[in-house]
Amino acid sequence: MADEIFETAVTVETARQLLDTQFPEYRDRSLTAVTSFGTSNTMIRLGNDLVLRFPRRKSAAEATGKEWTWLPRLAPSITLEISKPIARGEPGPEFPWHWAIYHWIEGRDLFETRDADLTRIAIDLGTFVNELHAQDPGDGPKPGRHNSYRGVPLSQLDEAVRRAIGEAGNRVDGDRLGAIWDSALLARPAPDARWIHGDLMPTNLIAADGALTAIIDWGQLGVGDPAADYLPSWHVLTRESRRVFRDVIGIDDDAWQRSRGWSLFQAILALPYYWESNAAMVDMAQRAITQLLADE
Description:
The protein has 9 helices and 11 strands. By secondary structure, the chain is of the alpha+beta class. It has 2 domains: 12-103, Phosphorylase Kinase, domain 1 (2-Layer Sandwich); 108-294, Aminoglycoside phosphotransferase (APH), C-terminal lobe (Aminoglycoside 3'-phosphotransferase, Chain: A, domain 2). The strands form 3 sheets. A 5-stranded antiparallel sheet has the order 1-2-3-6-5, with helices on both faces. A 4-stranded mixed sheet has the order 4-10-9-7, covered by helices on one side. Helix 4 runs antiparallel to helix 5 (174-186), helix 4 crosses helix 8 and helix 8 packs antiparallel against helix 9.
């Protein structure tokens, strides 16, 4: 089923109308558009300590409610700062879906940060993943359309991955990527479903002074295969820092093979889809593919 997209970008003027109508207590605060490489939300900063988030897709709008429900429960057990919802806006004539006010997190994402200490990042990432995966999944949402199927058995993604490898054509080494995917499918499935962030891309990892400080954009949150959260091994880290990350998370070879499959899934689907429209997404996908092949 195609995802419904709100084609008209939310402007500062539209945001002001919505804010003045629904949250008049913020009427005197300034609004500033935020440059973002993300594809799911339009971000507008509200004063110095808050940010407005307007979904560009129906699925992203649904994620707002999911974050509202689960993030306050997960946050106390996580050392790093995570997205903190403050208030939820209602749909209206100016905007068709729920939108939200979040706490603004200072720092730069790891796509923009070039001076990060990747060994330190690997330790911080591993600690975060361990803390999240240790939490009781309880009645958390199983993977599905709401989180772009992050955390499902990889076999459910086989057709999509092989089709994307074909669509990428001579931009990639299809035979070698196919072999990586085959190995991921042969790995034993995850014995237990765990809470997963589901989208630990460089743009969702915030750093300051070279260290990881926050994890944002929890729209792909769900309960599924924990290997989906090891994706930064290839999207962020290098061979040396990958070893550090793996030592911290302490996983077996099957989980590691599945994590390679998850990184490939994200990268190879992004490559043909964004080739003409989003250079940053293409850059991240190509980097991940390069790192995956470097480990062969």
